[in-house]
Amino acid sequence: MSTTTVETPAPAGEKRPAGAPGRTRRRGEQSRAASLASHAVLIVASLTALFPVAWLFFLSLGPDKDDYLHPGRIWGKMALDNYAFVLQDTNFFHWLKSTLIVGLGTTLIGVVVAASTGYAVSRMRFPGYRKLMWVLLVTQMFPIAVLIVPMYQILSDLQLIDSYLGLILVNCTTIVPYCAWLMKGYFDTIPFEIDEAGRVDGLTPFGTFARLILPLAKPGLAVAAFYSFLTAFGEVAFASTFLLSDDKYTFAVGLQTFVSEHDAQRNLMAATAVLIAIPAALFFYLVQKNLVTGLTAGGTKG
Amino acid sequence: MTVVIDRATGKRRGEREPRPGPGRRLKNGFHKHWYAYAMIAPVAIVLAVLVLYPLAYGLYLTLTDATSLNTARTIGVNEIDATYKFIGLDNYADILWGPTAYDRFWSHVLWTVFWTAACVALHYGIGLGLALLLNQKLRGRTLYRMILVLPWAVPTFVTVFGWRFMLADGGIINSGLELLHLPTPSWLEDTFWQRFSAIMVNTWCGVPFMMVSLLGGLQSIDASLYEASEMDGAGAWQRFRYVTLPGLRSVSTTVVLLGVIWTFNQFAIIFLLFGNTAPDAQILVTWAYQLGFGQQPRDYAQSAAYGILLLSILIVFTSFYRRWLNRNEQQLAI
């Protein structure tokens, strides 16, 4: 033990004697050892983050459904057959269509409905304000278990089971309050003086909202839209319950169909998973910067 | 003191205009705030129709013995009317202290609480660690950040299937362990390891959000605070303890609350990782779903009752959390 401690250079700057030889380190710079350690930890973490996805991709190249148990065999016979099969002979494009309809529908309703509320709770204090905020917060944390049974009953009364509209409406239960919160956070960052100026110039509150604030809030609206879309895209419980026919499944449900009790076509499943994951991840990376600032805007302001 | 003086003169009350009646007040309030109400109307309507009405309906269902066998349904051309009946609070009594209460409810409550605490602690701990590492001047930190966000970028339902391949008997993880001559647990069959894998997968999925949020928080801390504390002779630990942590407080309180709620309600990971095969690794949410949709006959009433209980737990938790925040003079920054 003692040898190791002697060999490692002092990790933190202040431990170094004042007159020590060598370059003086500036603030924020690190000793070599500390920076090596940082890199080591980050590399391990990155590999951990990367591996499951990379592995999925690797398995998707193996043509047999049990290849995931013998990954070594894949090397010799790598092929894109799985992808060809998934694209040509499964319901992949039906699922894509469903996912897009449900995702975009939810996004549209969520953003349109929630925008004015976000503005109202950001700027106005009216009787019932606190109650409304509380309802918005509580609705976001509804476990799916609370609504799923009554929703199932209601939708089946309305003959909306197995329809896109039903699923969009159900998704809206969580999306609408969340969008309202998100947009309130964004509207809070727009200076109040703009509203005042608008009012002085004779605009009504609606006019201020529609003509001054909404155009300024486009990035905020975009964040809410991205978030709604990604949420609807990845939603599992409602989609599994309310969609019944194979060609109406969203990706989240469709992907499960490859593994049934009798048969597990894991190779096809892996290929489909990759086909879903790549565009989703690309989209996420495109929007992530906005998404992250949007989600934490309220938080970081302190 | 003022009160006494007011009483003494006995005037204040008389001088004030008479309070308008409730109808009048409503009208005044409406006059003053009607645009606010008009603006929240769309959300209020959507919430009333899509949330409150189903919630009330669900509450009613919990007081009945509705299952898929006695609710209204259509078989072929025959329409069968609902025959379930009102049974009062029997469902709740049965869940909370019926003969199978421990096996079905309380054991799941314990596991859910443990699951939530463990996952959020891991998310926060690892997320904070990585955020601190990424917040220093380091070569390639943008690349690291991009890679580390990946678990968040890929939809959860996709990654869970990836993990299922890895955790399967003979999957890559067990092959690797075998190579190292370590024991190879059956991750997806054994109760303990099921729970272990569930926490592991959820941690993997949840860390990026925490990391990114906390990184944002770290970057918003004023650098001069660090300089000042360094001038005062604060060591690395002291700077962390007295500058970083307080600076992160408002982000932390928010992400921890969100983390608790999300983890408590986490459906996709456990549902997709195990399906119906793991009764003991189900958390309350997935268990309620299984009662309502994963078995025959479907027990709608009990499932809804579970839902109501779950919601109550969350509301109680959030109320206490907010009160605790208020007592410490912090605001929830959602």
Poorly predicted runs of 5 or more residues of chain B: 1-15
CATH hierarchy: architecture of the largest domain in chain A? Orthogonal Bundle
Strand content of chain B: under 5%
Record field, number of beta strands of chain A: 0
CATH class of the largest domain in chain A, named: Mainly Alpha
Largest sheet of chain B: 2 strands, antiparallel
Could you name the CATH topology of the largest domain in chain A?
Answer: MetI-like fold
Highest CATH level, the class of the domain at 104-333 in chain B: Mainly Alpha
Pfam families (chain A): BPD_transp_1
GO molecular function, one term (chain A): ABC-type maltose transporter activity
Protein name (chain A): ABC transporter permease
GO biological process, one term (chain A): maltodextrin transmembrane transport
Give a written overview of the molecule:
Chain A: GO terms for molecular function: ABC-type maltose transporter activity. Chain A: One of its GO terms (cellular component) is plasma membrane. Chain A: Keywords: Cell membrane, Membrane, Sugar transport, Transmembrane, Transmembrane helix, Transport. The complex is a heterodimer of chains A (302) and B (334). Residues 1-22 and 298-302 of chain A have low confidence and may be disordered. Chain A folds into 2 domains: 42-80, no CATH class; 87-298, MetI-like (MetI-like fold). Chain A is built from 14 helices and no strands. Chain A has 302 residues and is mostly helical. With 334 residues, chain B is an all-alpha fold. Chain B has a domain at 104-333: MetI-like fold, CATH 1.10.3720.10. Chain B has helices at 2-9, 12-15, 22-62, 90-97, 101-134, 141-153, 156-167, 172-179, 191-219, 223-231, 236-264, 268-274, 284-293, 300-327; strands spanning 73-75, 78-80. Chain B has a two-stranded antiparallel ribbon with strand order 1-2. In chain B, a hairpin with a 2-residue loop joins strand 1 and strand 2. In chain B, helix 5 runs antiparallel to helix 11 and helix 13 runs antiparallel to helix 14 (300-327). The longest helix of chain B is centred in the N-terminal third of the chain and has 41 residues, at 22-62. At the A-B interface, helix 2, helix 5, helix 6, helix 7 and helix 8 of A face helix 3, helix 5, helix 6, helix 7 and helix 9 of B.
